[in-house]
């Protein structure tokens, strides 16, 4: 199985899109996408310096556009699985067919501008905590009033909060941990981004999303999301919620992923996968940064993708498992019961704990498709709601 990954903020480098403009149609595509992005993607990707592309309002649409422009050069029709880190999840959603590339870039533009505006409301920041005992690191963050904004795996947690609290953490780091301040404008993925979440929600409410055409992992909990409206809700919630990339990588292991392709600007996620999965077996990885990497990427896709036409996600009236584990239905819930949207149907017991399975729609519980103690994986049918799928 092949996973295609889209990186998040901090992976960009000055001029990283320059070689892509040599390909036919790329420059015109970027100029078209610059309209919904609200920024000049061509200039930002070729001429802007490091400080300019570090600006959240510019970085986020630039990163989504770079991933999508590279993906357009690839035969992804048989790819089973996509995921993205933070804003990269917008690109992953577009690749999964939840919405168009233009919608993804529009949302990235709104998200970037509103998060930049939220950063200006209070002096906040972020710092990477490298190493140390995970429980001790989280306890230290709580002691200093900080949030674990990113839990990236590979011994890396990103702390976020006030600058004063970050200074105290640096002065009193957890045992065997190193603190590295990040050059960002504020405390992303924390309650400080509340105004940005509200603004993005107002825009996202106008989207009519589609059911994902392939497995799409969510940064909220590493679960596969089978329904477009739920995915949009999670994308909005992600603005203030921690990025759980560690759980996404555990899902890759549980699914038996054998190949990983990271879209440009590539390298960060590949490094995390290598460190986190070294004990269980690192999949074959290709980092796609320039058109010169396209032959290797196409070869990886050909050798690790699913069978032609394979689509692992069931249709919309079927509730599917969000994670790898064993299924337990809700007590007393029988076929024929009338369900409401959001009702808990049961849980999947995973190595990280229980994950709830909820109804995405209202209607009668027509049929159980999984039974107590059945092993399940993301996308595995759990129950049918009303009529035929």
From TrEMBL:
GO molecular function, one term: acyltransferase activity
Catalytic activity: holo-[ACP] + malonyl-CoA = malonyl-[ACP] + CoA
A Pfam family reported for this protein in Swiss-Prot or TrEMBL: Acyl_transf_1
Keyword terms of this UniProt record: Acyltransferase, Transferase
Record-listed E.C. numbers: 2.3.1.39
Recorded coiled-coil stretches: none
Residues of the Malonyl-CoA:ACP transacylase (MAT) domain: 5-331
SUPFAM superfamilies, per the entry: FabD/lysophospholipase-like (SSF52151), Probable ACP-binding domain of malonyl-CoA ACP transacylase (SSF55048), Single hybrid motif (SSF51230)
Protein name in UniProt: [acyl-carrier-protein] S-malonyltransferase
Upper taxonomic lineage: Bacteria, Bacillati, Actinomycetota, Actinomycetes, Micromonosporales
């Amino acid at each position: 199985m092949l996973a295609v990954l889209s990186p998040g903020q901090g992976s960009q480098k000055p001029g990283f899109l320059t070689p892509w403009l040599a390909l036919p149609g790329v420059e015109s595509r970027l100029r078209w996408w610059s309209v919904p992005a609200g920024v000049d993607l061509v200039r930002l990707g070729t001429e802007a310096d490091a400080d300019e592309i570090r600006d959240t309002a510019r970085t986020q649409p630039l990163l989504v556009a770079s991933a999508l422009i590279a993906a357009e050069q690839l035969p992804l029709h048989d790819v089973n699985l996509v995921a993205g880190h933070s804003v990269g999840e917008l690109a992953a959603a577009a690749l999964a067919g939840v919405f168009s590339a233009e919608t993804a870039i529009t949302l990235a533009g709104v998200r970037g501008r509103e998060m930049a505006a939220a950063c200006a409301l209070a002096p906040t920041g972020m710092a990477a905590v490298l190493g140390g005992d995970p429980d001790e690191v989280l306890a230290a963050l709580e002691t200093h009033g900080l949030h674990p904004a990113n839990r990236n795996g590979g011994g890396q947690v990103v702390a976020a909060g006030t600058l004063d609290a970050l200074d105290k953490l640096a002065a009193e780091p957890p045992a065997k941990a190193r603190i590295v301040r990040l050059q960002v404008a504020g405390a992303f993925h924390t309650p400080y981004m509340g105004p940005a979440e509200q603004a993005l929600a107002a825009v996202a409410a106008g989207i009519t999303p589609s059911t994902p055409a392939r497995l799409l992992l969510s940064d909220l909990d590493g679960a596969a999301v089978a329904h477009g409206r739920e995915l949009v809700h999670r994308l909005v919630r992600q603005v203030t919620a921690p990025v759980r990339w560690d759980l996404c990588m555990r899902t890759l292991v549980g699914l038996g992923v054998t190949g990983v392709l990271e879209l440009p600007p590539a390298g960060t996620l590949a490094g995390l996968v290598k460190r986190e999965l070294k004990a269980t077996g690192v999949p074959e990885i290709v980092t796609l940064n320039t058109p010169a990497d396209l032959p290797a990427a196409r070869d990886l896709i050909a050798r690790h993708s699913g069978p032609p036409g394979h689509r692992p996600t069931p249709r919309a009236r079927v509730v599917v498992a969000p994670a790898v584990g064993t299924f337990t239905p809700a007590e007393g819930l029988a076929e024929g019961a009338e369900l409401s949207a959001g009702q808990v149907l049961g849980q999947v017991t995973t190595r990280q704990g229980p994950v709830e399975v909820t109804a995405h729609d209202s209607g009668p519980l027509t049929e159980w498709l999984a039974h107590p103690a059945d092993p399940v994986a993301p996308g595995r049918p759990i129950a049918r709601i009303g009529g035929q799928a």
